[in-house]
Each structure stands twice: as structure tokens, then as C-alpha cells.
Amino acid sequence: MTWLGYAQTSMPFLHLLLFTVLALLLVPLQLRFRLLWLVLAAVYLHAVFVSLNAGRRRTWLGLRWLFVSAWIVALALRVAPVTDPHLATLFHVTSRMLMVALLGGCLVSALDYVLRGREVSADRIFAAIVAYMLAGLAFAAVYVAVHAVAPDSFALSPVTGGNEHEQIEVQLIYYSFVTIATLGYGDITPRLPLAQMLSVLEAVFGQFYVAVVIAWLVSRYAARGPAP
Residue 125 contacts by C-beta under 8 Å, 6 or more apart in sequence? Predict the structure, then answer.
């Protein structure tokens, strides 16, 4: 089965949700096995095909290959052998912002699929959860870009060894999901104003998303009653 065919299965967002959860569990292992970041990159590509295909609208389908191109460019920038530190920072930030655009498009397409449906199916609920997780990953990519430009933006745990980018990315993915869920552990904190305001926006988004979108979907799903 091709990747596109896989995206057209009966419950594609359930599959994407499971794939995303597995990838997040594998994220810490990239500190020992550096190529494991490709697993998370595969989640992004999977999200492109599943969410944009679910949209079914000509606009979303037309954007699919544009998003795939952005994914390829982002990966190429990430692995480009650059020695100049300023150029390396530019490549790193551009790569992260391309991923933000990609994840943002997938999030909007997934929400379009969720909200325009006349009936609330289980897969639409899974799509809403996937959109929430994509938002967490998108904010994490923004934080990585902000940290690359202003390293004092966050109070992180000490980074040791040669895999500095991977360690920072793992910490900021963790921080993003702690923030969107408003858990507030306090082990990582934003220091500079831009990082602080982005964290506020993510926390507000997370609160309203769960209170409005998820609650609305679950209530509609429960109100369907038993099948005749």
C-alpha cells in the first residue's frame, strides 16, 4: 500500500495519532541514536498526507505537494554541512520555521475536517486530538527557532556532549507540551519577553482548545444516541 493509499484508510487519524505518540516516546532516544529524529520527521510527512487528504477540498489537495517540498527543504537544511556559525543558525531557524508552516497547515486542514462534518465520528475525535498534538509540535519548533536566535530565551537544563541541537529540541518539545497542557512544572522557564509571550499564547490556545473543540466534539458524539 502506498503512503497516499494508507492515508485514505477508514480511520487515518487514529493511525496518525498512534504514530505520533510512538514518535514522541522515541524522541529522548535521539540523544543516543541521532538519526532517530528522522522518525519525528516522518510523523510530519505522514501528517501532510493524512490531514490534507482528509480535507478533500481542491485547495488542500493542491497544497499537498507544496508541503512535501517544504518538508524536503527543511530536512535538507537540517543536515546541510555548514561550518559558518551564522549560516548554520540561519539554516536551523529556516528549517524550524518551514516545519512550523507545514504543521500549521496540517493543523488547519485537520480542524477543517473536524468542524465541517455533519456527523461526529470517532475518527473526527482522533483528528481533533491529532490537531492538538500538532499544535504542540509546532510551538516546539517555534521555541527551537527562538532559542537558536536568542540562546538566553529559556532556562534549560545544562547541555553536555556533542549533540547540542538534539538535547535542546528534546527539552523544548517537552516544554511545549507541558505549556499547552498548562501543567506548569517549572523546570524549564521562559526568560526573555518573546519566549514568555509565546508561552502565554500556547497556554491560552491549549485551554480554549480543550474547553471548546474537544468538549464540543465529545458532547455531540455522546448526543448521537445508540444506533437504530
Answer: 214, 217, 218, 221
Distances (CA, A) of 141 to 106, 113, 117, 118: 14, 24, 30, 33
**How far apart (Å, rounded) are the C-alpha atoms in residues 52 and 61?**
6
SS3 64: helix
Residues paired with residue 3 on neighbouring β-strands, in sequence order:
none
- Cβ contacts of 20 within 8 Å, gap of 6 or more: 43, 47, 130, 133, 134
In the predicted model, residues of the chain with pLDDT beneath 70 are 1-10, 31, 34-35, 52, 55-62, 161-162, 224-228
Q: Count Cβ atoms within 10 A of the Cβ of residue 107 and give its class: 0-12 exposed, 13-18 middle, 19 or more buried.
A: buried
Name the residue type at position 101.
A
User: How does pLDDT run across 167-183, given as a tens digit for each residue?
Assistant: 898 899 999 999 999 88
3-state secondary structure of 169: helix
- Pick the closest to residue 75 from 106, 49, 43, 51 (CA basis): 43
Interatomic CA distance for residues 97 and 147, integer angstroms? 12
C-alpha–C-alpha distance, residues 67 and 105, integer Å: 8
pLDDT, tens digit, for every residue of 141-159?
999 999 999 999 999 988 7
Whole-angstrom CA distances from 137 to 59, 193, 213 are 24, 21, 18
